[in-house]
């Protein structure tokens, strides 16, 4: 099939607003620093710490993505996945071949009580990488005329606690030290409220809506999730997405079908979850949601063929049907090493099968 990829993305910008009359299923692709660094053979440490290097690298990458995919990559602040949790005081570990991580700040359950007291006095808006984010945001506005917003999404509760304590410790302490973990959950809620309010005020976010990203939720049984994390996440959704039509988005790129009941009760209306199930299975269990998916980023997009990508796209469009319940994307990010042939296959397949709203 021959068609203009740049025109594809022009049409796509309009299609992403599902409230409008649109002709075609939209596509959403996000290229993070690990993919960019792999493609251009960059120094990841410098990419994540040097403003000029990061923006120049993104513009270089955009030249490639425009040529190969018709896709423009814009200046942005990219700290990987650690900014939210950095406000809790963890030291950022920069790696030569991967995205940044955080060193755990709690190594014994006996430290939690004092940690919670300390966090109650700390201004999360002035902690961790947040001041650097605001500084880089102003530079992007001055150099490129792009005004970035922040505070519309945050790491979910289990994901944050997993980074603070280490995943193995957290899963152990849920059983051995439940009261300490409950205190840490309340600390997450309080800190998240203060951080989100500060970021929204500083960057001009006025509309309702909230996104939570918590891969670790998938590792939990329904009983553990409900017993420790559900109420806090529901309170956060209520605080920042109180309106009937406000966005309540949940991301977890691990098994999540055992949490369908909880997602319904959270009032979630958009999901990017579980690469091991289909759009049809999600919509059967969460009727009315918008599915952001359902292309598996590893087994299909990274390691599959263009024909397999096309088959996956066609399946999801067919299962979602004409109710505007699908934004075609990967369940999680685009893995380093993903070929442009497979990325183009998404566009070709959507152009071929996605005009279902006319």
Please give the number of β-strands.
Answer: 8
Helix count, per DSSP?
Answer: 17
**Average predicted confidence as pLDDT:** 96
The percent range for helix content is 40-55%
Question: Distance between termini?
Answer: 21 Å
- Give the DSSP E fraction (strand runs of 2 or more residues): 5-15%
Rg calculated over all Cα atoms: 20 Å
Oligomer: single chain
| Helix/strand order | HHHHHEEHHEHHHEHHEHEHEHHEH
Described by strand count, sense and barrel closure, the largest sheet is: 6 strands, parallel
Q: What coarse outline follows from CA principal-axis ratios?
A: globular
Quick overview of this protein structure:
By secondary structure, the chain is α/β, with parallel strands linked by helices. The protein contains 17 helices and 8 strands.
How is this fold's topology laid out?
Elements: H1 5-15, H2 33-40, H3 44-49, H4 51-69, H5 83-86, E1 92-93, E2 101-102, H6 112-121, H7 130-144, E3 153-155, H8 157-165, H9 167-176, H10 178-203, E4 209-213, H11 222-228, H12 230-240, E5 247-252, H13 260-266, E6 270-273, H14 279-285, E7 290-295, H15 297-302, H16 306-320, E8 326-330, H17 340-353
Parallel strand pairs: 3-4, 4-5, 5-6, 6-7, 7-8
Antiparallel strand pairs: 1-2
What features would you describe in this structure?
Helices cover 52% and strands 9% of the residues. With 358 residues, the protein is of the alpha/beta class. Among the domains are: 1-30 and 278-358, no CATH class; 32-74, no CATH class. The strands form two sheets. Strands 3-4-5-6-7-8 form a six-stranded parallel β-sheet. It has a two-stranded antiparallel ribbon with strand order 1-2. Helix 2 packs across helix 4 (51-69), helix 6 runs parallel beside helix 10 (178-203) and helix 8 (157-165) packs across helix 10. The protein is globular, with a radius of gyration of 20 Å. The mean pLDDT is 96.
